[in-house]
């Protein structure tokens, strides 16, 4: 079945992702600027906060995925999505501590929701169309983020404050929740196929990829340092999200095997991370293409990692998605902590670290593909 003939629930879930990112991605793009340039906290503090957001967030991901198998993925996804609106109040913070608290509270709820939303998509698709459905989910998800960063950057260009812009982001997040409410639950189409070797191999590869996939805040900081312009820094995130969305739309029309998809994901991250080292001094003209390559990597990973898990994880698909998020979250926790401290010494060490760990993910996938 082609994607164009999929049932409407695929699009409801995908457009829910679009509206969610249309809101909270403006907060994500603002957060490093708020901490480092508004409240003047050291960069390593931002790295620690990002590590906590992903590191503790992985526990919420695992919890959300497990609960979705017990109480239903739709119910858990809606509850988590509604609480993502906590992110919108980050712009009203009067101190760095308040900003961190508000950001983390909303981000944890975003993690709690994600495995359940993926499980919802598995429920409304057949196995042969699943990679295309995940690609569409990712494409619309990130396209919403593109528009969020565009209106954020325009707001900053015209000297609007974070306290004015960010609370408005709660509106699209609430629309996102409404779309999840109107999804019609169906009997779960779960796979009986189980391959522990592939399952745990992909989870471990995703963990290493999490280590190498540093927060987009670091390229934002890099571009601001290179150009001395805040709006060029936040536009970095638009290039990342835009390229990832565009490649997601492309993947929704292509049929690749998961080995090829994940190989391209991890290889492109390794190349892009290494490229930041010699090209730092050339400003946005040289750095934006590397960010686009990181976006390509994200599109492939977010399409083929959950696709593999849905096929080889057995009947408890929510738990499988939770474990995938758990692995990625552990990686983010380790990676962002390391990136924060390494970047405080030199961006060279930070990006070299990211490139090498991405190569580790690549080697795991090549080993799994050879074994299959």
UniProtKB/TrEMBL annotation:
SUPFAM superfamilies membership: MFS general substrate transporter (SSF103473)
TM segment ranges: 13-36, 43-63, 83-108, 139-158, 164-183, 198-218, 230-251, 263-280, 286-304, 325-343, 349-369
Coiled coil: none
Pfam families the UniProt entry points to: MFS_1
InterPro entries: MFS (IPR011701), MFS_trans_sf (IPR036259)
Keywords recorded for this protein, A-Z: Membrane, Transmembrane, Transmembrane helix
Highest taxon above the source species: Archaea
Keyword Glycosyltransferase part of the UniProt annotation: no
Example GO molecular function: transmembrane transporter activity
Keyword Transmembrane carried by entry: yes
Protein name, as recorded: Major Facilitator Superfamily transporter
Source organism per UniProt: Metallosphaera yellowstonensis MK1
């Amino acid at each position: 079945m082609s994607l164009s003939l999929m049932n409407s629930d695929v699009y409801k879930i995908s457009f829910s992702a679009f509206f969610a990112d249309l809101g909270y991605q403006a907060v994500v793009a603002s957060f490093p600027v708020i901490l480092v340039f508004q409240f003047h906290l050291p960069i390593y503090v931002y790295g620690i906060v990002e590590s906590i957001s992903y590191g503790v967030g992985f526990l919420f991901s695992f919890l959300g995925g497990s609960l979705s198998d017990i109480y239903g993925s739709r119910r858990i996804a809606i509850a988590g999505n509604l609480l993502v609106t906590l992110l919108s109040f980050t712009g009203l913070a009067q101190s760095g501590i308040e900003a961190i608290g508000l950001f983390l509270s909303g981000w944890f709820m975003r993690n709690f929701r994600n495995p359940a939303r993926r499980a919802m998509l598995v429920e409304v698709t057949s196995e042969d169309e699943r990679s295309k459905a995940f690609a569409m989910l990712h494409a619309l998800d990130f396209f919403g983020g593109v528009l969020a960063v565009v209106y954020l950057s325009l707001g900053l260009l015209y000297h609007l404050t974070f306290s004015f812009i960010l609370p408005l982001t709660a509106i699209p997040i609430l629309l996102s929740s409404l779309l999840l409410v109107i999804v019609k639950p169906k009997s779960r189409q779960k796979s009986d196929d189980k391959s522990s070797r592939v399952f745990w191999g992909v989870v471990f590869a995703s963990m290493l990829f999490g280590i190498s996939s540093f927060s987009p805040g670091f390229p934002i900081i890099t571009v601001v340092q290179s150009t001395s312009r805040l709006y060029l820094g936040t536009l970095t995130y638009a290039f990342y999200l835009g390229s990832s969305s565009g490649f997601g739309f492309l993947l929704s029309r292509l049929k690749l095997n998961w080995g090829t998809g994940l190989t391209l994901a991890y290889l492109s991250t390794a190349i892009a991370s290494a490229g930041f080292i010699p090209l730092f001094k050339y400003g946005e003209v040289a750095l934006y293409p590397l960010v686009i390559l990181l976006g390509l990597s994200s599109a492939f990973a977010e399409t083929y990692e959950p696709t593999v898990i849905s096929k080889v994880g057995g009947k408890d698909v929510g738990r499988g998605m939770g474990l995938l998020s758990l692995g990625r979250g552990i990686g983010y926790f380790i990676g962002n902590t390391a990136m924060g401290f390494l970047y405080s010494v030199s961006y060279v060490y930070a990006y070299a670290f990211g490139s090498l760990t991405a190569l580790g993910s690549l080697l795991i996938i090549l080993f799994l593909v050879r074994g299959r």
